[in-house]
Design brief:
The complex is a heterodimer. Chain A has helices spanning 45-53, 75-81, 98-105, 111-120, 125-128, 139-153, 169-184, 198-202, 221-240; strands at 2-12, 18-29, 34-38, 60-65, 68-69, 83-86, 157-161, 190-194, 206-211, 214-219. Chain A is α/β, with parallel strands linked by helices. In chain A, strand 1 and strand 2 form a beta hairpin. By secondary structure, chain B is mainly beta. Chain B has one domain. Chain B is built from three helices and 21 strands. The chains are: A alpha/beta, B mainly beta. The interface between A and B is medium-sized, with 22 and 22 residues. Adenosine-5'-triphosphate is lined by residues 11, 21, 41-47, 88 of chain A.
Chain lengths: 249, 307
């Protein structure tokens, strides 16, 4: 179980002023469940994920993994304890191949497992295993390779940051099937999916909505979806009030 | 010939040699040739006027590999050698060279190789050269290769030069001439650390129509080391050429990269790319989030980059 207690994070902006991008978050993520986090761009979803992975440090609050306070631990230590974060924008490497990265994610992975992992993200092993994870890959390919590392690691806590972004519809369906089949049913694993995709949200046991660095709603997808739709309408009206009349059905 | 442990290890590191290779071979240890075999297609004979050999590949010889490593284990030795590699028409062979120095004294060890490659029409050569130094002595390990390459019509050479560890001082000079439809690909991999200094100076003249030359360099400079890389492409016909130098800079090291393009014919198409930068923080974070320590992440990135 992963628990965030009173987590806030302050960053300085270009003008030298401080801004709170994460505001007093209290939440628990249980094992055996899939969580969705959604909300407007800039709401703080990625920042929250980076706080859990140890890439960002909170200015206040603590993070507990299975009762242990992991707030002071480094990224590597948290990874070793069983947290993984699939980047929203994975970095590229010159000279490291898809196979290299998956081998790092899961040391000693056997060939069969390696290949099936690539197929799980819709990539043909023959074509991709020896490819450089470098400038020669498309954005969608990068995202799928990122997900392959996460699936191969099968960590206790998996955080996936917009796994659907830039990925074709076939692969999204495949990812959904893998998450439902392998993660949702496993009582040991906690899965957190940051997403803007309705289908992804609907496989979640619980959905959290973040806005302005705060958790503003929380519930099952069925409970949350009407809220989100209402808010989309309000936002559109706000944006479009003025000289252009705009009707939203 | 009986090799001691240091010699055996050096040969393994620079030329992947664990036993006596089959086919043609020339092994030079501490300034003297200790093993020399020719094969029907590849003749190796000593030069008469100076130290070194002529390696002559008969026209049409295909698929042979020849090993010509040099090792230095006596400190204070300054070894100078002149080697010629003559590849006959339509031949297609691989040459594995390399120089390993073990120096555990305060005196310098130095090997200067003057190499000449002559590729006859439509021949093909793959040349691999590894530099490696070891030993705890204060004496420097110095390597200064000077290479000239002449590529005749339709011939192809792929040169891979690797210097990954232990060489204190290198000045490498390479001059290449390419005739019509000739093709040259030069790959350099370099890692320097401590107070090491490495310089490489490439001049590639693409003289003939349809000729093509590529220089691809990747290097990592650590600690206080210094690197200078200059690659000039001189296009003198309807030809293509490309230089790429990409470096990772760390610690207090210094890197100077100077790609240079000279077109002496309006039909020449010459391009270059150069980049120097430190390891991106995002790359480290990514590998650490997969469970590597920061040091392991750095090592993994460098190893991949220089592969
Ligand atoms: N390291 C940082 N320094 C300064 N500001 C930051 C930093 N990281 C995030 N922010 C700011 O915090 C806010 C939240 O960003 P975050 O990336 O967490 O949003 P998000 O919810 O993931 O958005 P999106 O849906 O677009 O991915 C943004 O306004 C962003 O500019
Ligand atoms: Mg984000």
């Amino acid at each position: 179980m992963l628990k965030l207690k009173d987590i806030s994070m302050v960053v300085g902006n270009d003008q030298g002023e401080n801004r709170e991008i994460i505001r007093n978050i209290n939440v628990e993520f249980e094992a055996g469940k899939v969580y969705g986090i959604t909300g407007p761009n800039g709401g703080g979803k990625t920042s929250l994920a980076k706080l859990i992975m140890g890439i960002y440090m909170p200015s206040q609050g603590n993070i507990y993994l299975q009762g242990q306070d992991i707030t002071p631990l480094s990224i590597s230590e948290r990874a070793q304890l069983g947290i993984i974060y699939a980047f929203q924008q994975p970095p590229r490497f010159k000279g490291l191949t898809v196979k290299d990265l998956i081998n790092i994610a899961r040391p000693g992975i056997d060939n069969l497992h390696l290949r099936s992992t690539l197929r799980d993200v819709g990539l043909c092993p023959e074509d991709y295993l020896d490819r450089d994870v470098g400038p020669g890959l498309s954005g969608g390919e990068m995202k799928r390779i990122e997900m392959a590392q996460t699936l191969a690691r099968e960590a206790v806590i998996s955080i996936m940051d917009e796994p659907e972004a830039g990925v074709d519809l076939w692969t999204i369906q495949k990812l959904i099937a893998v998450i439902v089949g392998r993660y949702k049913k496993n009582p040991r694993l906690t899965t957190i999916i940051i997403t803007h995709n309705e289908n992804m949200l609907h496989i979640c046991d619980e959905v959290l909505v973040m806005e302005n660095g705060m958790l503003v709603h929380r519930g099952t997808p069925e409970e949350i979806w009407p809220h989100i739709k209402d808010e989309i309408e309000c936002k559109m009206k706000e944006l479009c009030s003025g000289d252009i009349a705009y009707e939203i059905r | 010939m009986k090799l001691d442990e240091i010699q055996t290890n050096l040969l393994k590191t620079i030329a992947d040699l664990e036993e006596t290779p089959r086919g043609a071979v020339n092994i030079r240890i501490d300034g003297t040739p200790v093993m020399r075999h020719s094969s029907p297609g590849i003749q190796i004979t000593p030069k008469l006027d100076k130290p070194g050999f002529d390696l002559v590949v008969a026209p049409g010889t295909k698929g042979e590999t020849v090993h010509v490593p040099v090792i230095l284990t006596k400190s204070g030795l300054k070894d100078l050698v002149y080697n010629s590699f003559i590849i006959g028409e339509d031949a297609d062979v691989t040459i594995i060279a390399g120089c390993g120095i073990h120096n555990s004294s305060h005196m310098h060890s130095q090997h200067d190789g003057i190499h000449e490659f002559i590729l006859h029409a439509n021949s093909k050569l793959r040349y691999v050269e590894k530099h490696y130094g070891e030993g705890e002595g204060k004496g420097k390990k110095i390597l200064n290769p000077t290479t000239t390459v002449h590529v005749a019509e339709g011939a192809t050479i792929e040169m891979e030069m690797v210097q990954i560890a232990g060489v204190d001082d290198t000045v490498r000079k390479t001059t290449v001439h390419i005739e019509a439809k000739g093709y040259v690909k030069m790959i350099e991999r370099l890692l320097t650390h401590g107070a090491q200094h490495a310089e490489s100076d490439v001049e590639m003249y693409i003289d003939g129509a349809g000729g093509s030359g590529q220089v691809l360099s990747r290097s990592v400079a650590k600690e206080n080391s210094a690197q200078v890389f200059r690659a000039a492409l001189i296009g003198r016909s309807d030809c293509t050429g490309h230089v790429e130098c990409d470096s990772i800079i760390m610690g207090d090291s210094k890197i100077k990269a100077i790609p240079q393009l000279v077109a002496e014919d309006a039909r020449a198409v010459l391009t270059h790319e150069a980049a120097i930068g430190k390891i991106a923080g995002e790359q480290l974070i990514k590998l650490m989030s997969l469970g590597l320590s920061e040091q392991q992440a750095v090592d993994t990135i460098i190893e991949g980059f220089l592969r």
